[in-house]
Amino acid sequence: MSDDAAKTYPPSAEMAANAHVNAERYAQMYQASMDDPDGFWREQAARVDWIKPFSQVKDVDFTLGNVHINWYADGSLNVSANCVDRHLETRADQTAIIWEPDSPDEDAKHISYRELHSQTCKMANILRDMGVGKGDRVIIYMPMIPEAAYAMLACARIGAIHSIVFAGFSPDALAARVNGSEAKVVITADYAPRGGRATPLKTNADQALLHCSDSVKLLVVKRTGGQTTWVDGRDFDYNALAADAADTCEPEEMNAEDPLFILYTSGSTGQPKGVVHSTGGYLVYAAMTHEITFDYHEGDIYWCTADVGWVTGHSYIVYGPLANGATTLMFEGVPTYPDASRFWQVCEKHKVNQFYTAPTAIRALMGQGNDFVTKCDLSSIKVLGTVGEPINPEAWNWYNDVVGGGRCPIVDTWWQTETGGHLMTPLPGAHDMKPGAAMKPFFGIKPVVLEPTTAEELTANPAEGVLCIADSWPGQMRTVWGDHERFEKTYFADYPGYYFTGDGCKRDADGDYWITGRVDDVINVSGHRMGTAEVESALVAHAKVAEAAVVGYPHEIKGQGIYCYVTLMGGEEPSEELRLELRNWVRTEIGPIASPDLIQWAPGLPKTRSGKIMRRILRKIAENDYGALGDTSTLADPSVVDDLIENRMNR
Ligand code: ATP
Ligand code: MG
């Protein structure tokens, strides 16, 4: 993946002519955001309706021991009024949410802004009656159904802080989060259908609540009507209560810096962090990035396939799109049910204009062959997006050629739970794209590349090092819930004066940014530093390899050796010849220095529920130190770990 060899894809003339932001406008706006950040963000704040206008734009300090981040601090607003009420005058009958159920045999729902308003108000009134008030915490443990969005907006309406726990998480993980946030209420559903199977969510919640305070109440939404047990006095029947609840509810006036939600990071690199986001700055940033990154225009149908359990679902299914008065599609199911054509069938059925998914889904679908895609009419799609991890060029090209038909720009959005919204991405009408590159900073974002050990800022191009951000932006997290010290230590201690992202990156000769993976995933082989993502990309480019994960392990001569976990394509058999072939393949693709030392055949890789490979676990196994694997509660399938331990190569 040498930079000069990377092909660039400029935006089409049509896209450049019609997009909100073209190259010239990007340059001018970016410059303005650097020259006068206060003026720039004062202007952007007009994207939301304020109850009381703010006087000061920003008050930020990144100095260890005194870290604080405030935006629009003396202004007040309500997020649910911004996402719902303010649209009623102009678009009450427009669809706010298209809901596509798990099974294609069940009908989709179209929820108008008017309906969204009355449902949000009903849920808000029910929560108030259950004793929830401003500043109280509410856990949302729900399938991808419209009620999950009502629940988020209802909390925002009454000033309660929500914390969503992905429906795939275990009772233990749920209990930990109920207790960690001292929540008053858990909102759940009877069952969560997904991929043709239904998880008994209510039963999981029952189990979790055995480990929580007796005062925690449960609000239960009916999804399937399947059987559940009922605890009188503790459990509340949402559907019965909603039938009688009033459908108006005065929104609470919130300070811009009041917390809107707590959300735990994915846990790829360690114990998940309880990220706290604000009300005013977060909403401004989510709305702005949603409109500009996806080039969303009035009337477009926009689909982000994430779950609301992840930050992507918060900013780019619910808050950003609804603040913009968009039509946002919410999908309950999985990409491969009933078959690998489902995503594309949904795009065709609802005439989706912007489609946003993750590399893990793209790779999985790529492995199923092109027919699943090409049999669907995808001509409505204008912009494609990806998020979650670096996308290898192989997958990027498939997404571009087969899904996008070479017509659609791909926004490779780099950001984090912590950042609230996109920090780096090509913009569809403004930038050239390079497969696998995050390209350019968003407005107001000042990325810096630091030499990892000296913390010296590398200003010339090309440059490679750790990625930090030099100044704040409105969507930045404000603290770790209940642990401000951990917040300061994690993000502001290693590189004083900067926000440390934990990611490595390189800036190429053109000044474009590439995320190379986690800083922890950089290995040092005989004095050569290299990102493990590069070796993974080379392996995945081999026709017989479906997926690969690469980590370092202690090596007597080289310092660190290269340990590869390889999942083969269906039908391929592992053999010594293939091992040799892969080793030679990587040597020719990258160079002898990247030659794998150990290759382990892996039937499956340990992944977070959001589909990210947990390399910290693979590192432990490769180091032959698998006794303490750390927090595995966010793992999708813990059983794959046993197989990997049993067949480890470094004994
Ligand atoms: P934890 O912080 O608990 O270890 P996590 O970092 O996986 O978990 P998230 O906030 O969900 O939690 O993920 C953010 C990370 O995902 C980024 O720091 C980056 O490593 C990776 N990432 C996200 N989008 C991209 C992208 N477009 N390109 C490359 N990497 C990405
Ligand atoms: Mg992280």
From TrEMBL:
Domain Acetyl-coenzyme A synthetase N-terminal: 26-83
Keywords: Acetylation, ATP-binding, Ligase, Magnesium, Metal-binding, Nucleotide-binding
Pfam families in alphabetical order: ACAS_N, AMP-binding, AMP-binding_C
GO cellular component annotations of the record: cytosol
Reactions that this protein is recorded to catalyse: acetate + ATP + CoA = acetyl-CoA + AMP + diphosphate
UniProt EC number: 6.2.1.1
AMP-binding enzyme C-terminal domain segment(s): 534-612
InterPro entries: Ac_CoA_lig, ACAS_N, AMP-bd_C, AMP-bd_C_sf, AMP-binding_CS, AMP-dep_synth/lig_dom, ANL_N_sf
GO biological process: acetyl-CoA biosynthetic process from acetate
Modified residues (N6-acetyllysine): K612
Class of the enzyme per the UniProt entry, highest EC level: ligase
Keyword Ribosomal protein applies: no
GO molecular function: acetate-CoA ligase activity; AMP binding; ATP binding; metal ion binding
UniProt-listed Gene3D superfamilies: 3.30.300.30, N-terminal domain of ligase-like
Role description: Catalyzes the conversion of acetate into acetyl-CoA (AcCoA), an essential intermediate at the junction of anabolic and catabolic pathways. AcsA undergoes a two-step reaction. In the first half reaction, AcsA combines acetate with ATP to form acetyl-adenylate (AcAMP) intermediate. In the second half reaction, it can then transfer the acetyl group from AcAMP to the sulfhydryl group of CoA, forming the product AcCoA.
Family, similarity comment: Belongs to the ATP-dependent AMP-binding enzyme family.
Name of this protein: Acetyl-coenzyme A synthetase
